[in-house]
Amino acid sequence: MTPIAGNPLATLASTPTGRRLLAVASDPRAETGRTGRRAPAMAGAIEGVAVIGDALPDLVDGRTPARIELTWPGEPAELAQKLRRRLGGDLRRRAWHDLIELRAVDGSLQTLRVIPHGRGAGGAWSDPVLTVRAAKLGLDGRIEDPTGDLARRCVRLVDPDGFRRRPEAVVHLARLGARPNWTIEPATLAAACEIRRDGAPATAPVVHVGAALATLLVCAEPIAALELLQQLAPDVPLADGVEVDGERLRAAFAAPPATRVDAVLRALAPGASRHRIVAFRAGAGLRTLNGVTEPAHGRSDYGTWSWSSRLAGCAPR
User: In which band, very low, low, confident or very high, does the pLDDT at 45 lie, cut at 50, 70 and 90?
Assistant: First the structure.
């Protein structure tokens, strides 16, 4: 098996969130200094916790992930409870589809997501689709990369039907494929072109597209990723009324953080009204691009709409 260059665990430990996570997972008292009656209940390592998903390719590339996705053999709610108790502070817990999210109100920690273990657990977030998103980095430093694709920086489907189950995964493919020194396995590239010709990612539920798009928009190569996504099927728009124009997107990404997400969405759908931009943001769960784009808190009333209908061209307001 190809060894992984660099030290992803060291990259994780170099971030404030990663440092605290590693400390409390091994022995919470080392981080909190707690003693007394609660200390015995807090003591001891949390076994089997691993980093997965979008964070792992970032760590392998020496990048700070926008959020940290975790899994373990037990129930997600149990791990979330342990982490919330051990990390302390004002951590808000939210069950979101098949995952549990922990967010520090004061922004002192990156968002943590606890994802069910294995694809059979059910839900979109427990289905990695791509082999590199199925690899694991244990908090003890052990790396599970059965296919070797993470070490090779190769984007490959877990199985041939992956894009049919999760059409929005083509956005993840474009985000990774646009990175320097990453390649897309030929059969996976052919499958991505086919699913794009069938209309993906617009054929996926809007909230799933929003989660994938949120990760793409804060990567280091968002414009290159969007251009690659379009090039997979040049004659098929990403959605009705959506255009990938590099110059327009560069100007949008230069907008102030408070207005950047609207600027980017308007650059992608120049004919969309303000109402449609707001509707898409609500359904996709997109917040601002002030360093991190996160799915918005709270319930959306637009989750069953297609994102094509929301960004379809109509007179700007």
Answer: confident
Query: Per 3-state DSSP, what percentage of the chain is helix, strand, and coil (rounded to 5)?
Result: 45, 10, 45
Radius of gyration of the chain (CA): 20
Summarize pLDDT for 11-30 with one digit per residue, the tens: 999 999 999 999 988 875 54
pTM score, whole prediction: 0.82
Tens of pLDDT, residue by residue over 174-215, are 999 999 999 999 999 999 999 999 999 999 988 788 888 888
φ, ψ dihedrals at 145, nearest 5°: -140, 70
Closest CA to 152 of 203, 188, 114: 188
- What's the CATH fold of domain 153-317? Hydrophobic Seed Protein (1.10.110)
Find, among 114, 131, 142, the residue nearest to 172 by Cα: 131
Q: Give me the architecture of the 6-37+45-149 domain, per CATH.
A: 2-Layer Sandwich (3.30)
The DSSP secondary structure of 175-226, one letter per residue, reads HHHTSTT-EE-HHHHHHHHHHHHTTTTTTS-HHHHHHHHHHHHTSS-HHHHH
Assess contact for 258 and 227: CB atoms under 8 A.
no
Locate the domains of the chain by residue range.
Answer: 6-37+45-149, 153-317
- What is the C-alpha to C-alpha distance for residues 7 and 181, in angstroms, rounded to an integer? 17
